[in-house]
Amino acid sequence: MLVTLAAWAPQELSCMCIYRFNMLTLNKILGVPCRLAKWQIHGFLKSFTFHPEKQLLHKLVLGIETSCDDTAAAVVDETGNILGEAIHSQTKVHLKTGGIIPSVAQQLHRENIEKIVKETLSASGITPNELSAIATTVKPGLALSLGVGLEYSTQLVNQYKKPFIPIHHMEAHALTIRITNKIDFPFLVLLVSGGHCLLAIVQGVSDFLLLGKSLDIAPGDMLDKVARRLSLIKHPAYSTMSGGKAIEHLAKQGNRLHFDFRHPLHFCRNCDFSFSGLQTAVDRMITQKEKEEGIEKGEILSCAADIAAAVQHTVASHIAKRTHRAILFCQQKGVLTPSNAVLVVSGGVASNLYIRKTLEIVTKATNCILLCPPLKLCTDNGIMIAWNGIEKLCAGLGILHNTEGIRYEPKCPLGVDISKQVQEAAIKVPSLKI
Hints:
Elements: E1 3-4, H1 5-8, H2 15-30, H3 38-46, E2 49-50, H4 52-56, E3 60-65, E4 70-77, E5 82-89, H5 91-97, H6 102-124, E6 133-139, H7 143-160, E7 164-168, H8 169-175, H9 177-180, E8 187-192, E9 197-204, E10 207-213, H10 219-229, H11 243-251, H12 276-293, H13 304-332, E11 342-346, H14 353-365, E12 369-371, H15 375-378, H16 382-395, E13 416-417, H17 419-425
Parallel strand pairs: 3-6, 6-7, 8-11, 10-13, 11-12
Antiparallel strand pairs: 1-2, 3-4, 4-5, 8-9, 9-10
Helix pairs in contact: 2-3, 6-7, 8-16, 10-11, 10-12, 10-13, 11-13, 13-14
């Protein structure tokens, strides 16, 4: 925000005090005594503008995100204030190809990353020299996409001699909530997206205990595949939506009770997830219904809304049950107490309101508080990367002053795996009406 020196004077000062303040300021600027009329001083001072936030704040981080199919950047300060951001989505391109093609995503990142970063810096009013550090997603994600972000970031880091902060994508999702909510450690987090599904205890900025993860594919990936199998891209109302969003909207028109899909890992008393078996069952059901209705593969079934509703409910129930067990485990171990019983849900799939409502039932039953970032911050964005950089900068963790040897990691676990302890606890989850 630009303000004039005259406007910066406290409002309660009298006109005479403001005049004297202006005279002193002008004398200091010119280096000689000055005798001008009030209107002349006011006009002169209006030509001088400054950014008070730049002078009062000490940490400014540029975050860059290219782990999958969104090219994003943002500048965030140590209070969580978002000074500027920009994003380029590849969704429309990948909808036409029926899924993300890594080489296509890489090329689109290359074409847009410089423009996105420049737009972000311009919107923030910050120059690269004023940055405290540059933070970039280096793990996990698509190798070709990660490579573009890392290459561009290291060029910036070396050009402007700035510290570099490598970011774990899932860690950034987990800590996003601390931008909007004053939440202390520890807390439980559920991360659900197109590439991941996991439950973890967040003990600190880079201190995670993994309770469970997907044993095969992620829920977002599964919902996208079901949407493609239902040929929703051919439906005018859903042709521009991502698969997961199309399923959520179509499900509102369907009756989930018309189809009954078996819940994954029903008899396994752990916090792991599985979605590939459900996807196979759905694919088999769609094929059966196509034969019954006498339509070819690629045409839209009359019962598509019912299938979408049943699939979404099964996914939501599966996620809810594993999360319920995680909460009970944390309460049993004393990790979550009445004073800090918080469940944070983040990631792209966390924007699904049906899944959120299902988790609300679980948190009410376990006396927990459910917190979700704003929908805009659930999907991949540069803000969460910049904020994770701020968190690390404030904690003095993972700050590199030499980028030599830094590599991206397409696959990378989050934290210390204690899922065996969850398995050994064998906690039975009471039934809830969902």
